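Practice problem: Thiamine ABC transporter substrate-binding protein
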Amino acid sequence: MVRPARAAAARFGIRVGVLAGALAIGAGLLTACGDDTSSTTEVTMLTHDSFELPQDVLDAFTKETGLTLKIVKSGDAGQLASTISLTPGSPKADVVFGIDNTFASRPIEAGALEPYEAPAAADGAAEYAIPDSNHELTAVDRGDVCLNVDDNWYSSRNLKAPTSLRDLRDPTYAAQAALMDPGTSSPGMAFLLTTVGVFGDDWENYWRQVSAGGAAIVAGWEIAYNQLFSAGEGKGPKPIVLSYASSPAATPGTSALLDSCFRQVEYVGILRGARNEDGARKVVDFMLGQTVQRALPSSMYVYPVQKKTPLPDGWAQRAPVPQWTVSLPPAYIAQNREAWLRQWRDAVGR
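Answer key — structure tokens:
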């Protein structure tokens, strides 16, 4: 999901910002589940770099539970999944948020997560449960990873903008695109899966053409959107970027190519071996509550998963849900991910 620093740019890869009083900075805090005293009064959540919720939402958690929620950021969703998968039973936090359906199987298979069936999941989140899992991850939000275009850039130059992901086979458009490495970026992985779903056995040739045409391929969303994208914060040189279908709601003058979308769901889960497991369960419950669910569209430009959650005025028009998206079963992704990544690296010369 993307938002202009992600909060003004929109992604289920959308969100930037400092959470005053909540963001723990420094490597020392990665062991923040710390001493016995803090383990009962604080709960630490590991998340990706794009996480953002308003301070009053975080304050509401303290009012409801009496616990302080500390946020520790750890790269993109792909890096996040790898980090917790390497430390099963010895986590660096109590709970994790931001693992998506493209990487969900990795920490589940590693035994890094503790099952928990949140009562509120029955109100919507349960519909996005990982198939054949045991409630290790609970859905929080959903969105659609799509190519975004800076329409103002093209109109100001009297140039024709691309209308499909297929247009990136043209070197002119390929050279104008900022894409992401699927090995380190969840939007990047989502777009790789899109090409697998759309082009079938020809997906590698698509990437060969896009790479040879000069597309920039970077580690994550923040670099692509906020540094390279011409409509992003950095006003970069690339008028095409991989982001979310909801990103244009935060960045006027842009649009999403709705034939290039992959449905992405983000999850929260309790880390096995958490010092404050009770607090972690309260975080899961809180993420499904209306305080967080109502805040998701305007703060992280994603759709809430809980039914009957009201959306901001005009949201459906500014952030339309694609009528068609690529969808692959998590088990199928897990079985083929490493092979697809090897093939992708060969195709783009990495």
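Discussion: The domain at 27-142+264-318 is CATH 3.40.190.10 (D-Maltodextrin-Binding Protein; domain 2). Students who identified this feature from the tokens alone can consider the problem solved.
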